[in-house]
Amino acid sequence: MAKPKQTKKAAAWSLVVMGAGFAASLPFQGGVVGKLLVGSFEAGLVGGLADWFAVTALFRHPLGIPIPHTALLPKNRDKLTEGLVSAVENNLLNKDSITEKITGFKAAEIVLDTMTRELHNDGVKSMIDTLCKRILAGLPLEQIAPLVAGEIKSQAGAFDLGPILERASIQMSERGYDAKALDYGLKQAEEWLVKPETIMFLGESGLKAISGIQMNGLMQFAMNAFMGYLNEERMGSILQGYLFDRVEDMKREGSALRYKVLDLMRTQVVRLAMSESMQDGVNGWKNNMLDGWNAEETVLNKLVELRDKALTAMEDGQYVDTYALPAIERVLSDLRSDEALLVGLNAKIVEGVTTLLEKNHSKIGNLVRENVDKMDNASLISLIEDKVGQDLQWIRINGAVTGFVIGIALTALRMVLE
Q: Which branch of life, at top level (predicted)?
């Protein structure tokens, strides 16, 4: 397609050709051909000049002469601006047409499809990396910590340790912890029994216990005789041997004594765990511990530690491909498959755009008016000539050519009539 400047040159050359042809054919107007040429070039020259005048009069005064009804655009600039604003507001971009177009516009699907398609773009991945790091680094941990600490204390305070005690007592038996505890106690008892000082301790304790027994008559005489025979070492050895035999017996699997002791231990542990006073005591101990615990500081320190570790792990950006993108893709896929959600999102988008359009439609015309008012007459005329000047110059060319053809026809008609 020809450029406006080239078309303007072509229009100017059409006038030159018509004027030169008219001047060159004047000496030959005595003949038939000469008359036809003079008439055709004359009509073409007149048509070209008339169209040149008409086209020029739209933008400026022809030859700078202030002829009435010329320079139409500068004189009617306000009307042109208002007409342009009206056309944009009421025809090209009226509210009804925009609303009608966006009603069927599936914006949510387009946004989700675009995000899915561009998700693995290096630029997008870099944006995700930067965004994730800034969000993590900017978390208000000082405000989050009291909330987390309060929730931990609340949940821990409401938690009843009673069922745990009962379950633990049962687990002790099921997993053999009571037998292990008995074996540990027997081992400690055995180690204590073989110590030299244990004999003296047992002897003293035994003699003291026996001397405190009060009997009558012959029984008291026999007791005194027995006490005269015993001393602390002998009594300690007797008791040591007896206790040592009992310990060895209880260490043996299948021992009746061992079974009785374990059964007693299990019964007492279960009874103790199910005791209301025991459960209340454990829960009270727990609550006292919670009351004295500075949970906010502990939670804040732990959150800061976790954040710093996470930021360190995120430095190389590999988490974007490994974790972030798959998670985002799953979310986008879920959203894309939820028809009800998409319909709702599209409805909200249409509603939002329509509301925005209702409130700001007049700004479209104001924007057109402001942009037109920013230009002076010369800039406005240059803009219009640049956009429609090519077609206007073709009017001049067509005028010259059409005048030439009509000139031939009129001259021929006049010659026939003469």
A: Bacteria
For residues 268 and 384, membership in a common domain is answered with: no
pTM > 0.85: no
Q: Is 67 helix (H, G, I), strand (E, B) or coil?
A: coil
DSSP H helices, 119-229, are: 122-137, 141-158, 162-174, 177-193, 196-211, 218-229
CA distance 416 to 418: 5
CA atoms within 13 Å, Cβ hemisphere of 342? 18
**CA distance linking residue 333 with residue 73, whole number of Å:** 57
For residue 42, the enclosing domain spans 4-75+375-417
pLDDT level of residue 335 (50, 70, 90 thresholds):
confident
Residues 225 and 182 in one domain: yes
Q: Tens of pLDDT along 18-57?
A: 778 778 887 777 777 777 777 787 777 787 777 777 766 6
The answer to whether 182 touches 262, Cβ cutoff 8 Å, is: yes
